[in-house]
């Protein structure tokens, strides 16, 4: 939290123990500190006129987290790489829901203020600022920003004040672009476009470009005509390049303002491919005809480095999400990741792992789940065996690699262990066993009085130096060990959680406890988290969410959430960020019709102020079910899908009219759950049908 001239941090966001902290934790702390320092200018020196433009301070602070981190640690390459997966890809998931909202929201009452501090303000704000900076070029962008700060320092400013300063900076360089006209489309409309690019068969060296509002649930446009009949259009700065197996052209920028346009480009024939949104600087998705997708996949298979690292990650994110929304067949993203054994950079692997984990949570309770996990392992194992585990020095300690290498190794290891690679499992079990052996046979001292004497607890001496597991992979090793080994290992990790004084280590240990395949232990952890002082209040939500991400704990966490809702809501209801995080986290992977009905019933009886978060949850579960119906619903699928839509529309109306402050989180919950359900209805069988025939290589 920043005040003018004073930044205040909770200890877990400022204290760092380098001996036990991973790269990701160091990165997180760096960016929190940079964020709060940035607020001295954006928010304090110049304050938004009104709450509707809170993104003017939060979006800029979030954007400069990555710029500032790059200044401090250039090798991290945050703005060109991690920004894509951690900001752009993440917020586009949220902003692709029909329950999203414009970045500038009207605020009439004091109770509306907390609602505007959400990821749309932070992450979409940062993404739009980055897009504008790339359109203007950094020198002009910085000049306009400097003028804005100097003109309005010690005072207030609105978004038009910012746009005017940027327009003036452009005009002084002879560039006549009305920034207000361009950016109002992006800030006053919800969502973002999908741009479809295809070769024009009737005109030589020409392409047809169209835009439409991207929504995961495309049927929502039919159900909500009052919203989608606005015919959203954006002024899109589309960068475009043409390439072939050995060459890619210099990018050109095309301003797309109409629903459909035709433009001349460089030489285009049957063997050249088109690539839009170069380096993913724009806030939109790009789709192509199937032939162009096949050419891009072939390029990745033969020579991926022709396409930039950022675009390789962008292609992966776009193709999975376009398939999820029904724009592409389900096999296209699966074919694309078959190139990963040749991928040597962290960012595309990170983009792929995020997409694969999301799919895995949708499929992990289906009968044919092994088809998917086996296919993923076939793509991952060549790189896993090549990279191996962190190297050890002669004294047995692990050596630290350079950042990009270590992050790539960690990403591949996590995929290998998560999807069942036996070598990865053995290695994790061996490291955990060695750690336990070095701590055994010590005097037993209990730190838990809440566990009945009949329950055997192994006590361990605290010896942090005995833990030789590399900090960067401890979360992988701990989770894998807890999931594969016996109850004694769970007790060991539990005791280590209590004895550790390093906040980053405590967080990793606590999350590892949620990986158990023992329902009794998961239930015990949930109860201890909420009803005792053994787990800090700020960590209770993470425990419930991570138990829900465990396929064996999903229904347990969902039931616990409903049973304890009054306690949870009274404790976290005022903190809308935490409340929304809890609702979304517990419901985002529910994907059966029964779970969707449970969610709807729960909202109708308990919604109250959290109605918005629950509405989002229902949307996600409904999307999951839709995918299931379309893939396995047979002839009944269309009727089943229509019935779901009618119920969803009625429930959303109830939530939005009676949900109170938490209505947005409820709305997202409904939409997400409903989308999950519909994915199963619409696409699951198609998905598995292709996997049954997929090549082994």
UniProtKB/TrEMBL annotation:
Keywords: Cell membrane, Disulfide bond, Glycoprotein, Hydrolase, Membrane, Metal-binding, Metalloprotease, Protease, Zinc. Its main location: membrane. InterPro entries: ERAP1-like_C_dom, Peptidase_M1, Peptidase_M1_aminopeptidases, Peptidase_M1_dom, Peptidase_M4/M1_CTD_sf. Coiled coil: none annotated. The keyword Zinc applies. Its cofactor is Zn(2+). GO terms for molecular function: metalloaminopeptidase activity; peptide binding; zinc ion binding. Pfam families: ERAP1_C, Peptidase_M1. Residues 273-620 form the ERAP1-like C-terminal domain. Transmembrane segments: none annotated. Residues 1-186 form the Peptidase M1 membrane alanine aminopeptidase domain. It is found in: Cell membrane. One of its GO terms (cellular component) is extracellular space. One of its GO terms (biological process) is proteolysis. Belongs to the peptidase M1 family. This is Thyrotropin-releasing hormone-degrading ectoenzyme. It comes from Labeo rohita (Indian major carp).
